[in-house]
Design a protein that fits this description.
Blueprint: H1 2-71, H2 77-93, E1 97-104, E2 109-112, H3 127-133, E3 144-149, E4 158-166, E5 172-181, H4 182-190, E6 199-204, E7 209-213, E8 238-240, E9 243-249, E10 255-262, H5 263-266, H6 268-300, H7 302-312, H8 316-347, H9 349-369, H10 373-404, E11 412-415, H11 417-433, E12 437-440, E13 446-449, H12 451-467, E14 473-481, E15 484-491, H13 525-536, E16 540-545, E17 549-559, E18 599-603, H14 607-619, E19 623-627, H15 630-640, E20 646-649, H16 659-670, E21 676-680, H17 685-693, E22 697-700, H18 705-715
Parallel strand pairs: 12-14, 18-19, 18-20, 20-21, 21-22
Antiparallel strand pairs: 1-2, 1-5, 3-4, 4-5, 6-7, 6-10, 8-9, 9-10, 11-13, 13-17, 14-15, 15-17, 16-17
Helix pairs in contact: 1-6, 8-10, 9-10, 9-14, 10-13, 11-12, 12-13
Amino acid sequence: MQRAHLVAAFLTFAALCVGVSALSVSRDRHATLDQARREFAATAHLLDEHASRAIEAGDAQLRMLLDALERWDRRDPAEGRRIQAAMRARTERLPQIGGIWALDAQGRLLLDSAEHPPPPRDLSERDYARAHLGTAQGPPPGLHVGHHLPGPGTSQGRFTISRALRDEEGAVQAVAVAGIQNTYFSQMYGEAGWGEGARLALFTSGKEKLAEWPPDSAVAPPSAAWPQPWDPPGGPAIVEGSQIIAARTLSGFPIVVVASRPLAEVLAPWRERALWTTAVSGGILTGASVLFVFALAGARREEAVRAELLRANQSLDERVRRRTADLEKALRSAEMASLAKMKVLATVSHDLRQPLQGLAAFHELLLKEAPNPTLQQLGAMASASLQAGQRLLDDLLTLSRLEAGVVPVEIGTFPLAPLLDQLAAELRAEAEGKGLRLTVVPTKAWVRSDPARLQPILRNLLSNAVKYTARGGVVVGARPRGGSLRVEVWDSGRGIAKAELGTIWEEFYQIGNPARDGSRGAGLGLSIAERTARLLDHPLEVRSRVGRGSVFAVTLPRAPAPAAPHPGTAPRPPDPVAPAAPAGSSPAGSSPGRLSGRRILVVEDDPLQRSSLTLLLEQAGAGVMAADTFDSALAAAQATLQAPSAILSDYRLPGGTDGLSGIQTLRGVLGRDVPAILLTGELSADLVRAAKEAGCLVLTKPAAPNRILTTLAELTAGADATA
């Protein structure tokens, strides 16, 4: 009977193992495809915006030329020369435009941005001339997109956009034409970094190719993915054959942008993970099979093994000692595993914080663009959820770093009063809103501690006192105790039962919150405060009477006050170990034009993070130069012959470089001490110290969008916007 149970257990385990493995592989493939479709829909959207801006700029030049032609008295040669000079100046300012020319009503060359007077040429056979001059039926075309002009390949030529000047009867007076450089789009596409197999192209609505990347790659227009008039804007990418394809029609222009990538390239990481999953499942089944065979053999030898064990354990004392040693070893292993877990969680904090930064920026932009009150209300609710999630993440990461022992401590001497006044100012509005009196007893005492670690301890005690007090007030003061100073927080709240005084320091424990109301926090504040106080060797105590209130106290070493204190002795601000401002917060005083006239250089290797920061800064009125490396940033700055007003850079960058060294190198090349901000998820006191020595500010991801804009506005206040 025992063998039958073993066989049944083994078969059940094998079936579960295979089923779980297959389900995991299937779900992973589905998730990989969904992510690829979203990424390519976003790619098509970015290409759509880029191409639309380029075509809009060219169309604007055509409209200005048509206005000039309508007013031009052709008997005045000087006026023609002025129009040609203006055409040439505009062409030189816009890299996407390779030339602007105008035809008369017979298709002859009238003006050319390249030279004046233009050589006599008959261009009536060109497609743009036929499109406007040969309109016999139907409404006359507005903006016409023409074939590419001759060149070694599609990527080396130009395609045209044109408009006609007509009189009141609809007769053509002149035709304005602009040549759009294919290389302008190919260069942008090549810098997108979408994978070796990616194919990006521009087509006319008639499926004639205008530009592509890689050059001369024979990108064909898709069939199933080709956008139709009834398709919703911004639809997802679809799988067509062996490709994932996303196509979008430019708003207002008969041009379609197409992005594609081989399905095999997209699924390559999934195949590798599937092989690993299969290998692990096979290993588990193999190990289970071996154990099954040994278990069957062991069932037959059970009596012999029992006798052997009885002979081996000749005395009870020996067995107890051996078992105690095993338990101690297991305890040490568990402690080491827990420590390793905490170290890993503390180390990956950068990767946990990274996506929240882009989410905060996109959420901020979405709220600004949402005119619907319902969407505004939903956005506010999403903002509250985002803030709650970030607070929980900050608390978990802080707790993990404390448990792992990787929190640095810098002890210094400073006055206590400014710190208490600052904390009271932070919470005074909340206290007054509840009708509470918040009192700080004046003190001239100096203490020895780490202000960056002491501040969150006192903030948590004071915040809890205000939170759990319904009427009366909260008093904060300091009492001398020999060579120490006892900082006490008194409240007139409901008090804490004696049975709970020992458990309030545990993680996720909250008094009077059995339903786990998330608006009241996660129950980690006192646990973090207790561990931080233990790290600083500052005893933390509590006394309470139910119905009367509680008093929390932390004891600090006293320090003699200096003869002439100076401002530098004030507590330093918290470092990145302290919780950052909520990612979704956005004070009401934000103004869209606060960075007007500033040129901000953004260096971020993650495309989505770079896009979110670019959109955020542009909405604030800044001119943005975005790059994924400092080499690209330097090239962009040299190309524009303009130094940025400020630099906003990530710390971790590809190629073994980092944002701090890149900023210093760029400053040296430009010969200017450009203000700079490091926007990073790294929680390192060494990094903060190095950034301070280099004259850089550090903002911890996820930083609130308004905090980013405010910091940049302060750094660039009074700066020359044309520098």
